[in-house]
Amino acid sequence: MDRSKYIPVLVLTAVVISVQAITAAMGKGFYLTQLTMSAYYSLLIVGLCLLMGYAGQISLGHAGFFAIGGYISAFLTTFDLTPYQTGRLVSFRADTGLLQARQDLYGGHLLTLHPWSACLLAVLVAVTIASVIGGPVLKLKGHYLAMAPLGFGIIVYAIVLATPLFGEADGLSDVPPFELLPGLSISGKLSLRVQNYYIAWVLVIATIILLQNLVHSRVGRALRSIHGAEDAANAMGVDTAQYKLKTFVLSAAFAAIAGVCLTHYNGGIGPSEASIMKSVRYVAIVAIGGMANLWGALVMGSLLNFFSLRGYFGSFDDAVFGTILIVIMLFSPEGLLRMEIVRALSGLFRRGSAEEEAS
Amino acid sequence: MSLLNVEGLSRNFGGLRAVSNVSFAVREGSIKALIGPNGAGKTTLFNLVSGFLPPDNGTVSFNGEPVQGLKPFQIAAKGISRTFQHIRLFPKMSALENVMIGRHLHGRSGFLAGMLSLPWTRAEENRIRDTSMEILGFLGIAGLAEADAVSLSYGQQRTVELARALAGEPRLLMLDEPAAGLNMRETAAMARLIEKIRDAGVTVLVVEHDMGLVMNISDEILVLSYGEKIADDMPLAIQKNSEVIRVYLGEEESA
Question: Which pTM was predicted?
Answer without folding.
Answer: 0.90
